[in-house]
Amino acid sequence: MAKIRIEKLTKIFGPRPKEGLRMLDAGKSNAEIREAGHAVGISDVSFEVEQGEFVVVMGLSGSGKSTLIRCLNRLNEPSRGHIYIDDEDITTYDHDQLLKLRQHKISMVFQHFALFPHRTVVDNAAYGLEIQGIEPEERRRRANEALELVGLKGWSDSYPSQLSGGMQQRVGLARALAVEPDILLMDEAFSALDPLIRRDMQHEMMLLQQRVKKTIVFITHDLDEALQVGDRIVLMKDGRVVQIGTPEDILKNPASAYVERFVENVDMSRVLTAQAVLQRARVLAFPGDGPRTALRKMNDDNYASLLVVERDYTLRGTISVEAASKAVQDGLKTIEPLIEETPSIPINEPLMSIIGILSEWRWLLPVVDENNKVLGVVTRAAVLTALAENTPDKTTSAEPESEPESEPERSDAA
Ligand SMILES: Nc1ncnc2c1ncn2[C@@H]1O[C@H](COP(=O)(O)OP(=O)(O)OP(=O)(O)O)[C@@H](O)[C@H]1O
Ligand SMILES: [Mg+2]
After folding, report:
1. What is the pLDDT of residues 57-108, one digit of tens each?
2. Residue-level pLDDT at 409
3. CA 14, CA 34: separation in Å to the nearest integer?
4. Ligand 1 binding pocket mutation candidate from 29, 61, 401, 407 (most atoms within 8 A of CB)
5. Reported pTM
6. Pairing relationship of beta strands 80-85 and 88-89 according to DSSP bridges
7. Which residue out of 13, 235, 241 has the highest number of ligand 1 atoms within 8 Å of its CB and is therefore the one to mutate?
8. Which long-range contacts (CB under 8 A, 24 or more apart) does 84-92 make?
């Protein structure tokens, strides 16, 4: 049984959603519908999320990600379609049933999590339990457990202002976890964090998920993040689902409609170069490394290959995890004989041609200087993300400000 089953879900914003639905059924475009004074939030979305699954929803700005996730706890009222949670259609829930659902079964974490500045960390984390009317001692205990889960043990009596942005976001996560929901909805929960902290949070989120096994629906703009954390990825475009698959499926099939769109709009991508997506090569192998050393280096960072360089960073090639494993079996002393010849690009290589190279080359692509010394690497995910972020492909030019994100919590409290 699916934990969440979404059936032909449509959300039209505006005063007369029925009229918007009629226009949709008549095959009108989102733009035409918008001209008539409605906005298509999502249209005919169907998919299922299994118990314990980590599903990532991706798509450009305005593609309907937040609308979708907010329909799942009915912060947005669906215009048509059904949402089954544990096989119960929550679109028919009345006010009391909804409150119960939000208080016990589904928690949500936002990008800008509004912590109460005058409450301690533990009281912030206990907020949801307080709403449930749980006794102070019990809620302190459960809030402390949740804080420990997110790595904030010992911070209970501090105030939010004493915490870094990343730590505050963890308090938000702890608040969501403290009510022990089955389902966690996360709307760009890590997007405001700086990249390094975001990486930590992604990593911890995965570890956390292994322990608590929630069903998670997680929104992000960031393909790297999606590939990192998702069991499956749902790609949205113009309110519709354009592709659903495992990270592997998505990467193997970069010609999906969504990715094609990124690449179609070539203007920016011609201007953008490798410079824009250059990453530090965090781990490198040397020709004299033993195969076990190479494997361990890969393992530590979860890489499927490593670049091999001389001590002065001159590029030699690539060693893959398969080759290194085989070298261990064959009892080779060093990886030297197994180094694969590797394409490289200069720092001013346009992203468009990098896409071409990456479709043929599955490992890390090195960026080199004029002396063939490695400056860094680019990854397929980084290139696609950069193209996506720089593609003028918003569905709306004048997008209405969405509601302040602390709003629903206040309404919960009411
Ligand atoms: N409250 C609202 N009133 C009217 N239109 C809305 C409202 N909220 C969203 N929309 C419209 O619905 C569409 C989907 O918006 P949504 O916020 O779900 O996109 P998103 O994928 O979350 O974008 P972002 O990445 O920018 O957060 C957009 O066209 C948007 O203008
Ligand atoms: Mg959004």
Report:
1. 988 889 999 999 999 999 999 999 999 999 999 999 999 999 999 999 999 9
2. 38
3. 9
4. 61
5. 0.66
6. antiparallel
7. 13
8. 84/2, 84/4, 84/5, 84/6, 84/7, 85/3, 85/4, 85/5, 85/183, 86/1, 86/3, 86/182, 87/1, 87/5
Answer whether 77 contacts ligand 1 (Cβ < 6 A).
Answer: no
Q: Is the pLDDT higher at 245 or at 27? A: 27
- Closest Cα to atom 4, ligand 1: which residue? 13
Over residues 168-177, the mean pLDDT reads 90
Question: Do residues 273 and 403 make contact, with C-beta atoms less than 8 angstroms apart?
Answer: no
Rounded to the nearest whole angstrom, what is the distance from the C-alpha of residue 188 to the centroid of ligand 2? 7
Lowest mean pLDDT among 152-156, 175-179, 198-202, 332-336: 198-202
110 compared with 174, residue with greater pLDDT: 174
62 lines ligand 1 (CB under 6 A): yes
The runs of H, that is alpha helices, within 253-308 are 257-264, 266-271, 274-277, 291-301
Q: Identify the structural domains of the chain with CATH numbers, from first to last.
A: 2-116+182-253 (3.40.50.300), 266-389 (3.10.580.10)
* CA of residue 151 to ligand 1 center, whole Å: 33
Instruction: Give the residue ranges of DSSP H helices in 179-320.
Output: 195-212, 223-229, 247-252, 257-264, 266-271, 274-277, 291-301
Which two three-digit tokens encode residue 158? 């501090």
Name which residue leads in pLDDT, 407 or 16.
16
Please tell me the residue having the least CA distance from ligand 1 atom 11: 41
Least confident of 173-177, 187-191, 335-339: 187-191
pLDDT of residue 404: 39
Ligand 1 neighbour 43 (Cβ under 6 A): no
Quick one: which of 173, 59, 202, 154 has its CA closest to 113? 173
For ligand 1, is residue 162 a contact (CB within 6 Å)? no
What six digits make up the tokens of 210? 């292994």
By the 8 A CB rule, do 321 and 304 touch?
yes
Q: What is the pLDDT of residue 410?
A: 36
Query: Token pair for residue 298?
Result: 């890969």
Closest CA to ligand 1's atom 1: 402
Strand positions, DSSP E, 271-351: 284-285, 305-309, 315-320
State the average pLDDT for the chain. 84
Q: Are strands 183-187 and 215-220 parallel, antiparallel or unpaired?
A: parallel
> What is the structure's pLDDT at 144?
96
